């Protein structure tokens, strides 16, 4: 069963009542982060029930030795994993002599709130301990957006029915493990534990990758809101540092601990300076004080929401869903560091290793591009540009030559680290997403300079790959691409995946188009690039031959492109005729049965029509939608958004809305029964697209024109969203009766709305 | 580079000179066994160099937790592994105070001999120890065929240049590991260590499977060949028992230890009786004495060779090769226990888990059937019959119904335990081999009663599988079988593998043929089987519809059946045009590249034509041979034999001979650079077929007729082989000029030779 315990609220994720069954799911849903670090909503105090601990630092990973059955030539040696980092939130609590553990106390008034507007996590409850003491706890924490190495906790305990002693034992612990460790190994080595006055620090390093991380804390106390001094005794263990403070309270009094913590890493500091840097951070935080840090946090989030918010009226669950998606996307990636990227689970879990997938280019770039400064999307492109060398090496390992590049399926540092052959070696369509990301960026920003300076090199390497990867079929008298896995991973090692072949052809054509443009308009750069890549006209001629003669499987009778050769040999039984007891098929069926079935995990031919909507007539899209949608099980989180957008584009609003709900509340309602492992961050960008590109019908065309075709689901009163379009802020409002555009920028904006040209003067509201 | 150090000899495998590089390869090649247990040729004394220890007991396995990257639904929980069993051969040696270790001594006159005629392993060498003592060692050991739980060692040391003390420390050690353990776990738990007078025993059990095994030893000593008494001190460790005996020797004297050892297991005894049984075995062995045991061993092997030997004149390497193959096959499986089977590496290594593969039915049955009593082949069939329930369960796990069975790809107890989806779930052609094994057996033995009593149930369950596994293609208007892996594992998840489709159709047809025959001739049995399997005429009608309308990919232009749909889309570059540096492709190319290439790992379409040669005209076979042979890389040990046989059948003797050499000396010359991991036992049965069915052209047709078409490679003077045909012993001799048949049996034999009917009276020699 899906979960259904999150209380609808416009700006917050709220849980009321304590249910041990929901602890791990809530740990995912209530995660906090600031793009540089993140933290699952684990309790500060001890908890003896089932819990999945997770603290993460962007860019700090471990190359866990690959686990496979039978080794195949070319497999990567390791799978890079985002690391569960040293615990900074821990505060062990004793009431008189009894340890506070929600698993053994009688709990009432339990409430958890993730305040998305202001960026903090709150928790409150009443507990009666086994020894009879009753307490009331209010805890609040956040990870600062402004001071991006700092987290802060305010943890208050009211002595309801007793006078006595409350012991706070804030600690740091580097003795942590990854749940998904392949061989149950430790990933961290503790190097140094340093004590100060009310402050402490653990320096640890990751094994193999040798990242050094200092985790620092400093604490402060109050009774009834008034600061008090407190002294501690320290317990230094092999991998942990604990300070124990005992505070006397009378019945009715409230004791509070403030814990300020910081991660600093060798990504940003000299290794020798880390302890000092950590101490500096926590001392500054303590000096600012919790209240000031908290105010800064509210301000930071207010700024973020200004250009990112989507308001939905008349459907509070939809409102909560979209804001949760936008909130988590911002918690995962802020775009200020080109070394970081967007892991499919962000900082909310371990699965998928926290690594970079094609999700970034195919799903996430539009969101970050349209809600933030153009530099953010550019940083995402630069991430791949900086890894081009590794992508070329990766292709070499697979037998490609002459600077051909195959970007990895999964990576931390540019090296491939996924180890299922049918994905790693065969899901090569990802290479197309790399070029599409550039295309998308250039259309949106009109920053063609990026292509000139960086992008073209990537595109050349990828076109080389496609040219070499295709082969001439004597039978078909066309070029074919054999042995691939398309976006629909419920097919493996197939021939002539429509999506892959289409992208291959398009990549070559777009590369040649850019080459020609650069040759003409940037002759110096053209020379530089040609020299650097050793490119000849003869070579590009060969590419074009492949692109011009690419084969696409097509059925004349049905007039549809086939997902792959032989697709129509399958038994085509619509998903609706599958017994419920057999779904999701990935949990009920063996892999071979899935593979030979007609069921589609995620948009594949339709993914192509979504990316290149301008290349297909509406009736073509309709025909393909009607053929493939009934066979699609959407067991990938990345599928419903694409179907939602395409459905809107062919005026199937009920279907668009159905698929929207599935993507928007995927985690909140736990559609896939796996939210305890973490949230589906990258699919959240798809949710954003479902509103803006789906209902809003926003497109940016190759000629740079921005267009809208706003529609609204029957279930909503109105919705509005904001676009940062080449530095101009545009708000779009759509209700059942109205459609308004508000241009907040300094200059007039020219748009297409419902195929009509519209010009909106600066700072004007226009009703269309 | 291939290895080339084995000295050619008609009856022995000989190594001269000590080379640390060859130690592990020799440990495989010089392995000994008796079908119930086996032992790699590890040294008795300590050896600090690289070595791969292996002692194995038939039927004793461990379910090692599966290791995969991403778990797929339906994967088996474990991979059953043949276990490295407690060490029984160990004798630590000290000369005065110095340990004997060939890795640190100066070695000369090193010689190793595996005497295949008599079934023993000998080793001799001179060693100068680091402390200066010079010794001459002669060691001999064997695993008794007659007393099949017993092994015996004679180990003599001559004091060449000193008088002093020789310490013999015979030991048993249950603290052993499997090299291929997935998670470096111990598979054994030591339960009890028992001491006696010059005898000792360790009782240990396998974890999870709870097999109990007692390993017992008893020792005896001689000086200059005369028995002497000796007393020991014992060292009892957690998992090992060592007795230390010190013998005084004068210069020139020889001290000898006899070590008799025994494995007894809970497969054959009550757990409580194992220690007693082990002691009984070793005491009886000691009382018989090494010399008598050794004589028994020679006698046993003489009997085996009587009906199994193949004599080749004029090519000593070919002679050595074929005898090595026959010897190892007999060491692996004697056919007396229907619970045992033939692991691809027999008792010579760990790889492939010592489990049962389709190799047994597709390759091994003919050898055991024609060189041993018919009960042996029947035991192999009964092994599968007894596992039918598990095969039905296995199919259920994959979504099949109504008693359909899918036999496992790899098994110890009937449960599937292989965990690569492309093999486990998709290499379903193995199901066809199960039926083919029955067909083969019935043709050869004319024992149709087996079908009535057992075989038909297996065939019904398998026909059900094929019926359910095929689906109707609306496009092709025929039945297709999608998503399979054929015998050529260099293709995965393909559609309409010719071999698989052909076997599916044939299985149904043969089942229906047997059903009809049984209905007519054994009406009571028919009723019983129909009731037991709940079979209806309506169901068989559906099977027949599938068989009658099965699709086979075929190219009109080339007039060849295609290995699978789309095969001709590949670039067809013959193997001979592949640079040597890129071979073997499974070590040089990544998996995706192999998959999309045209290269064939092992006979596939040709495998079908080999199994059903009578169904294809010679010119059809020629055409397919000429199409597929140039694309075949033979990177499976099971491939060359099939090509050799087919080549002979179409009069391509040079090609047949080339492929014969490859199969016959695969391990001796280490073609695949992996003999150190163990020998390719099951492919050895293919070598036997290459001579008997290939050069000898032996066939047994559906009507029960035995036929020959003897040819001889230009390189040989003559060859001869023996066939046990329905209890009649027939010797076939072929030279460049002569072809003779000698009927050793009590009644006349009717054969077809070169398509002519020949009758050979009892005990007569006939020249044809």
Highest-level CATH class of the domain at 12-306 in chain A: Mainly Beta
CATH homolog superfamily of the domain at 12-306 in chain A:
Glycoside hydrolase, family 65, N-terminal domain
Structural class of chain A: alpha+beta
Q: Unreliable runs of chain A, pLDDT <50, ≥5 residues?
A: none
Number of helices of chain A: 20
Mean pLDDT of chain A: 95
Largest sheet of chain A: 10 strands, antiparallel
Q: Which architecture of the domain at 12-306 in chain A does the CATH hierarchy give at level 2?
A: Distorted Sandwich
Domain Glycoside hydrolase family 65 C-terminal (chains A, B): 698-759
Domain Glycoside hydrolase family 65 central catalytic (chains A, B): 323-689
GO molecular function (chains A, B): carbohydrate binding; glycosyltransferase activity; hydrolase activity, hydrolyzing O-glycosyl compounds
Pfam family, one (chains A, B): Glyco_hydro_65C
